[in-house]
């Protein structure tokens, strides 16, 4: 299961080549919900990366002693506990951002990206490679969130990190904010566009069609 | 003979096959205990900081609301630092609550007996149930109430909206509004947090001469003294704000309290 080429490739391959969001389409629920502005996207990305790395480390340390019958429950409990700790931490030290992230930090528990990495990688690898793999996947997820968050905030509000970049009409500038960018569908469009762009550049990521559409016969038509 | 040395017992436990029943239950137990300690530890250690954050925010909103009302800062400074009194009122009676104080309010509201379930016809703010007690802030000019700040809440489009509504002494003119908590769509409904929109509340009237609550958030620009400007693209949030203000100033909300203040009983 270990990826050949050492730690560097374990860390770097999930950034674009094996990106968990754009290639495997994992964890997109939160990727869509928290990307209306760059600071929430960044906080969410950091929280997920921390949870991912720590849960991969813990699961990997006890991997030889997890009974396979209850392995999913054990993994989910570890992930959920870490998520609660992170959520409490954000509420204590990043109160404003945690209010805007609301329920989505808690929902990291059910993020299939986290369970996917602990189940498929950390459970069968030593702690260090597992944590590096988790860090790589976390950074890959972060990259997508930051890109989408930046585009949505820039075109939806004309600002980045809350600082005005494009002067909006409200403030006497020329830029009319695109309200669509702040609504959930725009995240789908952007993510779809991103997947399309990456797969155009890297055709090996294109999946084989699962079935051919039957040709319409002349008589019926 | 049973080996009672804990270290060798631990080694024997780890050496058990993973599928054995003892190890399965043992592992589940150990993981659960460790996680419980972790979660509880974090919650207990961080709780004081979180409470400080909430209290600081409440205070900040209250002060922002007061300073946004024209002339209010001067009035309070004139009357002295602690001019704003905090009172817990019994909503049904419209009087100060006898046995609930601001300190015990939180505990009292834990008791479901202190909540009134609302019928769908009454429940225009989407609350489901309403607390029987509310903490309000009152500024007096001599004996007369010159300003009352009332917390209001209700269901918005995406979640609960909480706000503070300030009424002038006639209990009919709005002095200001400050949204404390909302999770509306950013850029659309969330614009209820913008000071520019909240300024529109100042000077609006709530009831007509017959005592019916007429206040509403308009569709588009306000056209009467009972209306504030609507927010384009946020009809549901605007309607929610209308419902919330109407509910809380109506007979099921602060109605009895407002009557009492008007009669000079408060």
From TrEMBL, chain A:
Q: Which InterPro entries match?
A: NqrD, NqrDE/RnfAE
Taking the record's annotation, the residue ranges forming a coiled coil are none
Catalytic activity annotated for this protein?
Answer: a ubiquinone + n Na(+)(in) + NADH + H(+) = a ubiquinol + n Na(+)(out) + NAD(+)
Q: Which gene encodes it?
A: nqrD
What top-level class of enzyme does the UniProt entry assign?
translocase
Tell me where it resides: Cell membrane; Endomembrane system
UniProt xrefs under Pfam families: Rnf-Nqr (PF02508)
GO molecular function annotations of the record: oxidoreductase activity, acting on NAD(P)H, quinone or similar compound as acceptor
| Its job | NQR complex catalyzes the reduction of ubiquinone-1 to ubiquinol by two successive reactions, coupled with the transport of Na(+) ions from the cytoplasm to the periplasm. NqrA to NqrE are probably involved in the second step, the conversion of ubisemiquinone to ubiquinol.
Q: What is this protein called?
A: Na(+)-translocating NADH-quinone reductase subunit D
- Chief localization: membrane
Q: How does it sit in the membrane?
A: Multi-pass membrane protein
Protein family (similarity comment) = Belongs to the NqrDE/RnfAE family.
Look up and give the organism this protein is from. Answer: Oricola thermophila
| Highest taxon listed in the record's lineage | Bacteria
Q: Report the EC code(s) recorded for this entry.
A: 7.2.1.1
Quaternary state and interactors: Composed of six subunits; NqrA, NqrB, NqrC, NqrD, NqrE and NqrF.
Q: Which UniProt keywords apply?
A: Cell inner membrane, Cell membrane, Ion transport, Membrane, NAD, Sodium, Sodium transport, Translocase, Transmembrane, Transmembrane helix, Transport, Ubiquinone
Q: Which residues cross the membrane?
A: 44-62, 74-95, 101-118, 139-166, 178-198
Any one of the GO CC terms = endomembrane system
Q: Name one GO biological process term.
A: sodium ion transport
Automatic annotation (TrEMBL), chain B:
Domain of life, source organism = Bacteria
Q: Where in the cell is it found?
A: Cell membrane
Primary role: NQR complex catalyzes the reduction of ubiquinone-1 to ubiquinol by two successive reactions, coupled with the transport of Na(+) ions from the cytoplasm to the periplasm. NqrA to NqrE are probably involved in the second step, the conversion of ubisemiquinone to ubiquinol.
Subunit and interaction comment: Composed of six subunits; NqrA, NqrB, NqrC, NqrD, NqrE and NqrF.
Name the NCBIfam families for this protein: nqrC
Name what cofactor the protein needs: FMN
Q: Name one GO biological process term.
A: sodium ion transport
Query: What's the name of the protein?
Result: Na(+)-translocating NADH-quinone reductase subunit C
Q: Which UniProt keywords apply?
A: Cell inner membrane, Cell membrane, Flavoprotein, FMN, Ion transport, Membrane, NAD, Phosphoprotein, Sodium, Sodium transport, Translocase, Transmembrane, Transmembrane helix, Transport, Ubiquinone
**The keyword Cell inner membrane appears for this protein:** yes
**Biological source species:** Oricola thermophila
Q: What is its main location?
A: membrane
List residues, modification FMN phosphoryl threonine: 235
